Structure prediction request, 196 residues.
Amino acid sequence: MSVNVNQARALCTTTEFALYEASRPENVKQHSPAMLKSKIRRARAVRDKYQDLYKRQRLSTRARTGSKKGNFPERNARTEQKAKLFAEVLERLQKQDDRLSAAAAKAEAKAKARSKAQASAKAKAPAKKKAPAKTRARAKAAPASKKAAAKRKAGYVSGAAASANQRQQLRKTRSKAVAGHTRSAGKRSQARRDSR
Prediction:
């Protein structure tokens, strides 16, 4: 039995009716996946609450009246309707969540396939370009002289400038190493002092 809007408004509190409204077909498509998951949790909690309440009411009615079913329509009907209403709300929200999950999985599969195709295309492309790379490497491997190679590598006009740059680079890297050794030696001696 599907409940219409007027019946839902009469049955529900303001927050429950807002949840019912959010699950209606025209509104359910507007929710983000995170918002949808939040509403599913809320709808499940409300449905469980009313199902439990309905069971408790039936048990107390059975004990009070002695009837086998424990049905007492005028008292339990409203709770039963609310339990059914929120079962429907939960079902609609879960269907939309399933649709979104399926769409996301499909998009992810497409993206994986696309990236796989690109990777295989890249793997095939370098095989064709190996020959030009080798010829370039040979051309670089056979310089006219050591000075000419140093000039080309550093981009300097004279060999003296290139060698000065090389010495400066060596000093820079060595100074970093020395500073690192000094710092660690200081830390070790501090640790020895602390452990006494």
Remarks:
- The two ends are 82 Å apart (CA to CA).
- The CA atoms of residues 44 and 90 lie 6 Å apart.
